[in-house]
Structure formats: C-alpha cells, structure tokens
Amino acid sequence: MTVSAVRAPSRWVAPAIGAFAAIVGFWGAWIPSYWGDEAASLMSAVRPLASLPAELLHVDAVHGVYYLLLHAWVDLFGLSEAATRSLSAIAIGLAASGIVLLGARWWSPSVGATAGIVFALLPRTTDLAIEARSYALAIAAAVWLTLWIASIIRRGGARRLEWVGYAVATAASGALFLYLLFLPAVHLATALTATRVGPDPEPAATRVARTRVLRGWLRATVGAAVLSLPFVAVTLAQKDQVAFLANRGYLTLQNVFATQWFSAPGTAVALWIPIVLGIVASFSVGRRGPLGRLAAGLRTPASAADPHAPRSVPALWPTLVWLLLPTLALVLLDIAIAPSYNMRYTAYSLPAAALLAGAGLVALSGWIARVPGASVPLVICGLLAVAVAVAPHYTSQRTEFAKDGGADFRAAADAIAADGGPGDALLFGESVRPSRNPRLVYRLYPDRFTGMADPQLRIAYDRKAGLWDTLAPVSDVASGLTAQRLWLIERPAAGHTAADTLTLMDAGYRLVQRTTLPRTEVLRFERTTGGNP
What's the rounded Cα separation, in Å, for the pair 26 and 398? Predict the structure, then answer.
C-alpha cells in the first residue's frame, strides 16, 4: 500500500464531517439576541458601499474584508440572526472538512476524522459559529492556507506560480483577520520538519527540494509582508480602538488555558487530557516502553512493521507552533507594548487543539485495544465523552440572552413593538460602552419601529466617518417633544435613568410602564392631561 493511499481518507468523510460541523454550529443561531460587536458588523454591512471606505479609514479597518462579504451576504439572505450568522456556520463547516484532510495528511485518516469532529464540538467553535463576526472565516482561512502550503511542500515547491498564489492568499488572509499574518511561522515549521518534500523520496533529492521550498517560503512571505504593509499601517493607526482591553483584565491564566478554547475550567480539564495525550503519543511514535505503546495507536499496521518509520510525527512541531504562537504573541504584546490579548483573537489556533486532541483520542483507543491504529468503537466512546463535557456550554450558548453576558437588544425591541406604533417617539439613554448603547436596539431591529419618531438623531452613522450615530441627550430634546407616547430605552448601569425620567416628567409626561430586562430597561411614558404642548 502506498503512502498516499494510507493517508487518503474516504472521499465522503471530509464533506460529511464538514456538513456535521456546519449543522451543529448553525443550530440555534436564531435564538440569541444580537450583541454589540455584531451591531458593528450589521451596521457596516448595510450602510451604502460608497460610505464604507470612510468608516474603514477611521475605524475597524481590520474587519473591512468581512464587512464587504457580509454586505453581499445580507443582500442575498437578509438581516435576521439566522441569515447573518449562517455565514460563520458555513465557514466552520469548511474549516472542519479541511481539518479532516490535514489530519489525514499529517497523521492518519482516523486522526483527521476524529479531529474534525472534536473541532465541531469545541465550545469556542460552537460559539463563533453563531456570531456575525470574522473569526469563523479566519479559522477556515487558516486551515486551508495550511493545507495549501502542505501541498506545495509535498510537490517540492518548484512551481513559481504556486508561491505567488500563496503570497497573495497570505496577504488576503491577513486582511480578513490581522493576526493570520503570524501563520507563515507555522508553515516554516512545516517545511523544516516534513519528512516528505517533493516527489522523490531519496534523501539527497529531499534535501534539494527542502532547500527549494524554504527559499520559496521566504520569498512568498516577504511578498505577503509587502502586500500587507499598507493594511498594517492603517490598522496600526487605529490601535486606539482596542484601548478598551486595558480595562477588561482578559489576560489571566484561566482565560489563556481554559476560556479561549473550552469556556470553563472543568471542560478545559476534560479536553486538555486528549491534547496532552496527543502530544506525548505523537512524540513517542516508534519508541519503546509505555510511551511507545501509547503511540502505537497512531501507527497503521503497515507503518508499525516498518523499522525505518519516523520516531515522532513530524507534524507535531508545526501543530504545536500553531497551538501556542497566537497566544504567546498576544501575551508578549500585552505585557511588553500595549493591552492586546482577547480570547477571540486566538481562535485560529482552534484547529491545532482539535488535531492534537484527535491524535490523543486515537492513540488512547489503540493503547486500550492493544493494536496498531485506531479502535473505532473506543474513538466513538471518546467523542461521546467530549460531547457530554461540552453539552452544557452548547445549550447555554443558544439561549436568548447568551451573547456578551446578557445582550437583550431584541427583547427590548419586542417590548416596544408589542404596544407601540406609528406616531410614538423613541428616546435613548447614554452609555459609556458603545457596544452596549441602548441606541443599538433601533439599529439592530429597525422593523420593530416603523413610523416612530427619532427626535434625538443628529448625525446618522452612515453619513459620517465613523461607526455609531450621534445623538442629542434626552435633556436637549425633551422640551420640544409632541408625541402622545414615548419609549425610553436605558441601560441602568450607565446611571442616567433617574435623570432622564425626571426630565421627561418636567416636560409633561408620566411614567406608566417599566420593563426590566437583563441589561436594559424599557420605560413607557404618556403625556399628562394639560401637559406642555
């Protein structure tokens, strides 16, 4: 049996697991309310295309490519939560299918299939699958760009056009998600450790091909850096937009080792076990003793009988770089330069975690069954254990107020739509954090407010070089209000509710109803008899 035959999964496996990941990811996408970051995506996607460059030169250049994609997507499928988030779910499916192929190439088909399923179940994966942001697309780009470089390495890197395409694709990936520009370091590790470089397996030919691949990688990486330079310059000029990270305290051991991939410490323990087993087993292939017996699960019967088989899985090293570099780079930037770490920013390392966990589950199954290769029933048991461990997080992600610790914009909009109507006026309290501003209720669910007055609006967001509306305070417009019924949306934590309520009472209105939601209050006012005209 040839190496390529051993490494090739059945034709249907990758698409089937990709479809499984997309369905698991998409299920319940319509349940949680939009939250503040998704508001930035939607507002950018629906604004006139001609006004988008002005926004991106001012803020959010790092998300510009995604906003363009989402603009086309909502034109086709609409603005509902299910429609906008489906793009991310599809990207998760594409990523999972790529992980199956990559795992098969770097380890074995059984590792690839197991890793693809593990990836589909990871809590961070299922969270990002129902989020209208660029992270899921970045994960898919990382997987397929790595598959591309793996193919170039296997062919020997002799085709110049391939390297040109790799440079362009790397720069485009960086434009989709800035930190994907770290990915060539993973690909360098791949080129340095691959045992098969080029079509000729002879050692001398492999050395020549490896040198050619390394030169091609260097030229392509420099080319990608040159192509990315204008984009990087613009994003660096906008670095103040992540200044909020200084006040969030994200850089903690729990976030680094648990939350960024696994949501909670208990789940992290359950999933770190197969990851560590995968690392140990991959390092111990071909060795003797207990570790060698553990690694037997990663070897096919044919490779187990080969005395010249490698003493470790070469792909272990680039996978470790892929797993650790995104976090390490952000941690160092956070400590040495400026606050930079955010759990979502490391999402493109999720495939590496899944690959190592997949290798661990396969190795453990072979060790328990005492046979080379995977024991399918035992791998299935391991996957079921993973599913049980992550199930509480999956269900909690798919509740109405799941996003951002209690985003309730849709509930606020529905509370007004239930009793409001044309001729009513909408008012919005102030908020320190733009991503939690009550005004987003209006922008995210405009269909609930048809025919209602918007007296506070001074400059609409799509008519300026920025992202958010410019509003007058409630106190500036209260004396000129004429509507018989008002709706005031407040965020109590901002501390303006009492003052705005008194202002409206002084203007001739009385409070008749208060709806309290997890983060927002909706107050209904009606004009008093004999009130100010």
Answer: 10
Specify whether the CB–CB gap between 476 and 451 falls below 8 A: no
For 137, the token pair is: 């697309």
Beta strand extents in 447-497 (DSSP E only)? 457-459, 470-471, 485-490
Would you state the pLDDT for residue 96? 98
Q: Is the pLDDT of residue 304 over 50?
A: no
Non-local (6+) Cβ contacts of 204 within 8 A are none
Long-range pairs, 321-324, Cβ under 8 A, ≥24? 321/185, 321/186, 321/189, 322/146, 322/183, 322/186, 322/349, 322/351, 322/352, 323/349, 323/352, 323/353, 323/356, 324/349
Model pLDDT for residues 198-210, shown as the tens digit of each residue:
888 888 888 999 9
**Whether the predicted pLDDT of 289 surpasses 90:** no
DSSP letter at 196 equals -
Q: What does the mean pLDDT of the chain come to?
A: 92
113-149, pLDDT tens digit by residue? 999 999 999 999 999 999 999 999 999 999 999 999 9
pLDDT value of residue 260? 94
Instruction: Report the candidate in 477, 402, 476 with the shortest Cα–Cα distance to residue 29.
Output: 402
Reported confidence tier of residue 308, pLDDT bands at 50, 70, 90: very low
- Region of 140 (left: φ > 0; alpha: ψ -120 to 50; beta: rest) is alpha
Name residues whose C-beta falls within 8 Å of residue 452's C-beta, 6 or more positions apart in sequence.
420, 421, 422, 423, 424, 425, 426, 487
Q: Residues 400, 35: contact at Cβ < 8 Å?
A: no
Burial 325-337 (b: 16+ CB within 10 A, else e): bbbebbeeebeee
Q: Give the Cα separation of 250 and 330 in Å (integer).
A: 11
Transcribe 129-155 into DSSP letters: TT-SSSHHHHHHHHHHHHHHHHHHHHH
Backbone φ and ψ of 41, nearest 5°: -65, -50
CA–centroid distance for 495 within its chain: 33
Distance between CA atoms of residues 266 and 167, nearest Å: 41
Question: 239 or 353: whose pLDDT is higher?
Answer: 353
- Write down the number of H helices and E strands in the chain: 24, 6
Backbone angles phi, psi at 356, to 5 degrees: -70, -40
Q: With beta carbons less than 8 A apart as the criterion, state whether 94 and 140 touch.
A: yes
Beta pairing class for 485-490 and 509-516: unpaired
Query: Residue 146 CA to chain centroid, in angstroms?
Result: 17
Residue 38 has pLDDT above 70, yes or no: yes
Q: Is the pLDDT of residue 513 over 70?
A: yes
Average pLDDT over residues 65-83: 98
**Residue 89 burial (10 A CB sphere; 0-12, 13-18, 19+):** buried
pTM, to two decimals: 0.95
Residue 361: CB partners within 8 Å, gap ≥ 6?
A: 114, 118, 274, 277, 278, 379, 382, 383, 386
Q: How large is the C-alpha radius of gyration of the chain? A: 27
Using CA atoms, how far apart are residues 328 and 340, in angstroms rounded to an integer? Answer: 11
**More confident call, 134 vs 7:** 134
